[in-house]
Amino acid sequence: MSDAYAEDVVDPLEQEPAAERLNYAIGQMLDATDLRDEQTYHRARLARLAKYLLGHGTLAGLRVTAPDADDPEAHLTVEPGVALDRYGRLVEIPAPQCIRLARWFDDRGDAELNAASHSEPRVPKDEMVVADLFLSAHSCGAAKTPAFATGPFDALDAVVSSRLAERGSLELVLRQEGGPAPIPEPANQWPGSGNAEKQLKAVLGSWDEGTENRTADGPNPLAEHVSGHDPAAIFLARIFLPIKPPSAPETRPRLQMSKRVVVDNSKRPFIFFPGKWFGREIDERPLSQP
User: Fold this and answer.
1) Mean of pLDDT values over 225-229
2) Alpha-carbon torsion 137, 143, 148, 152, what sign?
């Protein structure tokens, strides 16, 4: 499908759609709103089932790999895969995606980079910038087609998007918490097997609908989310970027292209069932790159 004239579209699943089905009758008049509500009902019920049955996180793929040592642009690669976001929507990356770390680093401000300089056991003190990679769901309208004008308009050449594509969007976000405290990361709030009482409490307390569990931007952010960014996004990996520390306060750190970028895939939430059969030999590559 062509991306010509593509535009972002607000997904009704983000606006708490009502659980109401259309009640058809002979001779009933239907318009575009009714047909849209029909789609939204079925999408919302399926997403709600996935959200409460499976949770959110990576279902398959989406491995993040560090750039090669001789890569001048330092391409961070995300392999194809699928995940569920916090609304229960399926988010898919159908082909490998890359982020040019050198260009991304150059677009960040001096204060941002200095605030995101952290200490970590695998990297010498004050010689790295930490960023987290998130995956979000987006709906894009495309394939324009003629339609009646809507609103206070009187146009004969009005057009609308005839298709909506559901796509994944990657965002690399600096961790600017600073200080000696650990950088927040996803937490497993579900008890392990063998403790029926804790599991019962977890099930009874897992309902998270209603205004007390939402903000104007969506669901309440989790520990790993950064203020001002999509709170429904899925955490994929933590990235450690080697830098040359600034020589004076508030001067700009420089990305050390000669040193290796470290990628940690192991902190992300996974959706996995014991005994799941993949039908092939499992790749034994480590989740966390040293």
Assistant:
1) 92
2) positive
As a dihedral over the C-alpha atoms of residue 209, residue 237, residue 58, residue 203, rounded to 10 degrees, the angle is -40
Q: Which two tokens stand for residue 122?
A: 């695998």
Residue type for position 250:
E
pLDDT score, position 125: 54
Dist CA 215 CA 230 (whole Å):
11
* Angle in degrees, CA 281, 287, 290, rounded to 5: 130
| 268 Cβ contact list (under 8 Å, min separation 6) | 57, 58, 186, 234, 235, 236, 237
Alpha helices in the chain (DSSP H): 32-54, 101-106, 110-115, 196-204
d(CA 217, CA 224): 16
Which residue did the predictor score with more confidence, 53 or 4? 53
For residue 91, the 8-state DSSP code is E
Mean pLDDT of 97-116: 91
Structure-block tokens of residue 257: 């292209």
Residue 221 DSSP symbol: P
Q: Which residues contact 22 (CB under 8 A, 6 or more apart)?
A: 30, 34, 37, 38, 41
Say how far apart CA 233 and CA 251 lie, in whole Å. Answer: 32
Name 57's bridge partners.
84
pTM summary value:
0.86
